[in-house]
Amino acid sequence: MKTGIYFETEAEIVSRKVEAEDIVSCVLKAEKTADTFKPGQFITVQVTAKNLSVPVLRRPFAISSVDGDKIEFIFHVAGRGTDILKESIKNGRTLKILGPLGNGFDTGDLSKKKLLIAGGIGIAPIKSLLEYYDAKGKPAVLLWGNRTAGGFFDTDHYSSRSSKFVKATDDGSEGFSGNVVDALESGEVTSGSDLSEFDIFAVGPEPMMRAVSSYLDGMGLECQVSLETPMACGMGVCQGCAVQKKDGSGYLLVCKDGPVFFSSKVKL
Ligand SMILES: Cc1cc2nc3c(=O)[nH]c(=O)nc-3n(C[C@H](O)[C@H](O)[C@H](O)COP(=O)(O)OP(=O)(O)OC[C@H]3O[C@@H](n4cnc5c(N)ncnc54)[C@H](O)[C@@H]3O)c2cc1C
Ligand code: FES
To answer: 153-174: per-residue pLDDT in tens?
Structure first.
């Protein structure tokens, strides 16, 4: 899904919520971004703090949901930038954002079943896709894996917008005991249906996307993945987010050519 129109917005913070340990969601008023958004696209957020003379580079986050003129993003506090962001998000303040950036998911033919697989905070872009299919009257199957039960949040929302919602935990503390590939292998997720009947999307930590892609590859199938390569400009200028093409014929830019790619096209 090619796009290319983006806006720089001083977006009003409408709400902020601590969803789980070190996971925060934020709703912003950003009418133009909301209007042109496609599931899978992202924003970059200018992180600033009073005691810093120079702002930190913009940080990229998936747009996880759109409601009218409002957009939501959900982030894991991973380091300095997200730590500052967590503290600086306050109702009534503004955030400088750029977006929507990148290409969204190829949402495909609605007659085909959809299987969405999220690992950890990979649920953020998956949420927008889940809501897209639900709004089209074709709810998708959702498989969400986390290390432990503490990684899940807002599960009623996901459950009510999916045709089937399977949770998996590495430590067996909630849902299926094992990782998302174990869950796929068990047949529980697709209720015994062949995976070839589904368009498949997987977003999460790189090892998880690699494992899902390699499992599907073994069956002659592919999926769409969304890459979270560290970025500087976010707009195709600095070449800092290049990933190798799978056939070795060159590089693709995650910010401009992605972040969504078919697993057959990129080296994971
Ligand atoms: C297109 C895109 C969409 C993204 N969407 C989301 C999202 O919806 N929610 C979310 O929580 N995160 C998302 N990320 C990752 C997020 O941008 C990083 O976690 C964040 O920039 C880290 O900033 P920091 O200053 O807190 O961390 P830093 O202090 O810069 O780094 C802290 C740690 O995080 C790691 N890190 C830094 N950047 C990234 C990155 N891009 N991906 C993975 N690890 C990183 C570093 O290697 C280091 O270990 C996305 C990234 C991209 C490229
Ligand atoms: S982040 Fe600069 S080219 Fe992608």
So the answer is: 999 999 999 999 999 999 999 9
In a domain, 264, yes or no: no
Residues 127 and 215 in one domain: yes
User: Could you list the residue range(s) of the whole structural domain that residue 16 is in?
Assistant: 7-101
Q: State the pTM of this model.
A: 0.95
Do 130 and 222 fall within a single domain?
yes
What is the spatial distance between Cα 29 and Cα 22, in angstroms, rounded to a whole number? Answer: 23
Asked if 114 and 201 count as a contact pair (C-beta separation under 8 A), the reply is yes
The finding on whether 234 has its CB within 6 A of some atom of ligand 2 is yes
| CA distance linking residue 173 with residue 45, whole number of Å | 34
Q: For residue 34, give both structure tokens.
A: 């909301």
Q: Which DSSP letter does residue 195 get? A: G
Residues 5-30 pLDDT 10s: 889 999 999 999 999 999 999 999 99
Ligand 1 site, residue 58, Cβ cutoff 6 A: no
Distance CA 90, CA 37 (A): 24
How wide is the angle at C-alpha 16 spanned by C-alphas 207 and 115, nearest 5°? 35
Mark which of 81, 101, 121 sits at the end of a domain: 101
Q: Which ligand is nearest to the CA of 118?
A: 1
**Is 176 within a domain?**
yes
**Neighbour-count burial for 160-192, b at 16+ CB within 10 Å, e otherwise:** ebbeebbbbbeeeebbbebbbbbbbeeebbbee
CATH code, domain carrying 81: 2.40.30.10
Counting from 1 in the atom list of ligand 2, the atom nearest the Cα of 239 is 3
Tell me which residue of 30, 40, 38, 46 sits closest to 96, measured CA to CA.
Answer: 46
Residue 112, SS3 per DSSP: coil
Looking at the CA of 232, which ligand is closest?
A: 2
